[in-house]
């Protein structure tokens, strides 16, 4: 029974094996000029929620970067504590990047880490040290964890979540709150110029929240994969979508489908590497 449930969950969260279809808006100065450009930078990977129990989280990115000649000590990983508010975690990113103050940096951040990176960049007076920030599936229009924590029709589930997750943390992912933060970002021309917003087109919108939560908890606990416990609404909110200089990429992949590769899943590794090739070359 356990094996059957594992197969069902895995078929839901990891199912694409073909090439990644990407749509890039015309205003996007996305690609670096040359392959060897990557070697000139320090690459900082900012992980999302529950990175503490996901040993395969972004490992495929580290392998990819080293295969392109990036030195291991030029790759830095930031594991923000899962249930720390994004604004607080942004200060942790600032402290880590302060150690690379004399370096040119490329940021690659996912999910909650993408929102934290965005808040970090928002509060920097000078972004000269940032070459580019690739933000993958940040909850830019809020996240369903807020809805779950305040679910009136499922009081027991809401009560359970509140015991695990602080209410103030869940509130920081309400659609209204995140949109308020983004309105300030719209007018930061340097930030918009250096940021690539990468969003999936869907995130199991037809699957009930209860099932998504249970499936994600199970898969993350026993198999270190999942599809976003935060359940980010994977689209660009209208406030940013209408920005004329926004660099936006849309994918036909789910929330963290391109972030974790199990050791035996060579087909998925090839898919992720092809996605990164499209981004950088």
Helices and strands, with pairings:
Layout: H1 2-13, E1 22-24, E2 42-46, H2 59-67, E3 75-78, H3 86-98, E4 105-110, H4 112-122, E5 130-136, H5 144-149, H6 155-164, H7 167-171, H8 175-185, H9 189-194, E6 195-200, H10 209-223, H11 238-241, E7 247-251, H12 266-280
Helix pairs in contact: 3-4
List keywords for this structure.
12 helices, alpha/beta, 281 residues, 13% strand, globular, 7-stranded mixed sheet
Overview of the structural elements:
Helices cover 42% and strands 13% of the residues. It has twelve helices and seven strands. Strands 1-7-6-5-4-2-3 form a seven-stranded mixed β-sheet, sandwiched between helices. β2, α2 and β3 form a beta-alpha-beta unit. α3 (86-98) crosses α4. The protein is globular. The relative contact order is 0.20. Mean pLDDT is 76; it is low at 5-17 and 222-229.
| Mean pLDDT score | 76
Structural class call reads: alpha/beta
**Low-confidence regions:** 5-17, 222-229
User: Total number of β-strand segments?
Assistant: 7
Output the strand order for the largest sheet: 1-7-6-5-4-2-3
Order of helices and strands: HEEHEHEHEHHHHHEHHEH
Shape: globular
State Rg. Answer: 18 Å
> Helicity level, as a percent range?
40-55%
What is the number of helical segments per DSSP (H or I, 4+ residues)? 12
Distance from N terminus to C terminus (CA atoms, Å) equals 44 Å
Instruction: Report the sheet with the most strands, covering strand number, pairing sense and barrel closure.
Output: 7 strands, mixed
| Strand-residue proportion | 5-15%
